[in-house]
Amino acid sequence: MIIPLLQHHVAIFGYFGLGGLFVNDSLGMASNLLLFAQGEDIKYTGILGVLFIYYPSYYFGGLYNLVINCTMLSLATLFFLKTLFATGICATKRHISFLFFIVIANFYIIEVLFYPNKEIPLIFLTNVFLYYAIIQKAKLVSFVILLLSLLVRDAHGIMLLLIYSFIFFAPHLIVRHPIRILFVIFSLFCLISIRIISELQLLGDFNYILDRNIALANNPDSALSDSILNTLPSYVSFPIKVFNNAVGSALRPQFFDSNDRLYLHGIGLWQLGLVILFGGMTWLYLLFKARITTEAISIGFSILLAFLVVSAGSYTQARYLLPFIYWLAVVPIIYIRLTFLIGMVSTLTLITLALSVLGYGAPIPLGIDVDPMFY
After folding, report:
1. Contacts of 58 (CB under 8 A, 6+ apart)
2. For 34-82, how does the pLDDT look when each residue is reduced to its tens digit (9 = 90+)?
3. Within-domain flag for 15
């Protein structure tokens, strides 16, 4: 709690060599909320849910955001635990404590606690969705939850709709042959790019999501541009994007900003990258080898399917897997020996630090240290 409480005291953090105190998307959402509250015309697409959740902050300030964000994280934990125990995955109090620490100690999550954001509502809604879809088998409630997530981040809602379709309309396939189905989907994305899907208008009224994704990736001034990948055929670019999303954030983090300060925002994404790397590998192993319940198989299939869908986008953005952080983090904690896990994380940390210092890390960011609305 120290970081969000002192977030605006930039000089204090700068004195200790810390930077990257704010998340650009959250600042943008706070600005849009202010304009909306003042009656200005804004684009509601993709942020209507955010405006609804965080509108009271216009009157009560960042304290409201802190309360609602902590409430949603608490409820997300509650639904996660209800789902976890129902899957038959054996977790001890030590496992749960370690997991909760990984979630609340993520700097990305810490930095948005006082701000409107999409990540925390989606963490909550995703955990609720998985509980009602996989454990309760409640079609209507699950569908309502994915519609709500559609209002927060439209692309995430479409992804949950795809998961919903498999869970309710092909349950035997994903339980009996999860790896084969995932391989078929992987192969399809290798053959059919997101551009082709957009041209075919497969999403109907929601096709603007694909068009927006393509436009951002093709904009050379955009930070999301992956210009080299977009010139390659999909059977080459898609495997590369899968690899980038699996290991990129963990192996090529942004530890320092252009002022040689520790870049807290980049460290938060690196923490998520480690969770994605170890969590993804563990779920893949469980679906391949381990004897787990049908509910656990459905959870693992859903997470890996989401990973493939995120990778199918026109640019590499592992951050979109943050709503699954609980499920990605829990399995390595349970199924990988703690000493080995700590050793692997420590080794990767030393390697990535060395690469970063030697100039082989990700491009150095400027970092955002001032909230323009505050000053």
Report:
1. 33, 34, 37
2. 888 887 777 766 678 899 999 999 899 889 999 999 999 999 999 999 9
3. no
Domain assignment present for residue 177? The answer is: yes
Tell whether the torsion through CA atoms of 217, 220, 223 and 227 is positive or negative: positive
Per-residue b or e along 140-150, where b marks 16 or more CB atoms closer than 10 Å to that residue's CB: eebbebbebbb
Compute the distance between CA of residue 64 and CA of residue 56 in angstroms, rounded to an integer. Answer: 7
In contact, 89 and 296? CB cutoff 8 Å = yes
DSSP letter, residue 18: E
Q: Would you say the pTM of this structure is higher than 0.85? A: yes
- What does the alpha-carbon distance between residue 86 and residue 80 come to, in Å, rounded to a whole number? 10
Beta strand pairing call for 18-19 and 262-263: parallel
Q: Is 351 exposed, middle or buried (0-12, 13-18, 19+ CB in 10 A)?
A: exposed
Q: C-alpha angle 180/185/191, rounded to 5°?
A: 125
Contacts for 165 with CB less than 8 Å, ≥ 6 apart = none
Q: Are 278 and 270 in contact (CB under 8 A)?
A: no
CA distance linking residue 230 with residue 195, whole number of Å: 10
The conformation of residue 256, written as its DSSP 8-state character, comes to B
| Distance of alpha carbon 29 from alpha carbon 27, whole angstroms | 5
CA–CA gap between residue 349 and residue 356 (Å, rounded): 10
**The domain containing residue 53 runs over which residues?**
21-357
Q: Rounded distance, CA 129 to CA 121, Å? A: 12
Question: Is residue 305, in this structure, part of any structural domain at all?
Answer: yes
Residue 3 lies in a domain: no
- Only one residue has tokens 């053959």, namely 191
Q: By C-alpha distance, which of 168, 161, 163, 148 is closest to 300?
A: 163
pLDDT, mean of residues 69-96: 95
Q: Give me the residues paired with residue 19 across strands.
A: 263
3 state SS for 94-120: HHHHHHHHHHHCCHHHHHCCCCCCCHH
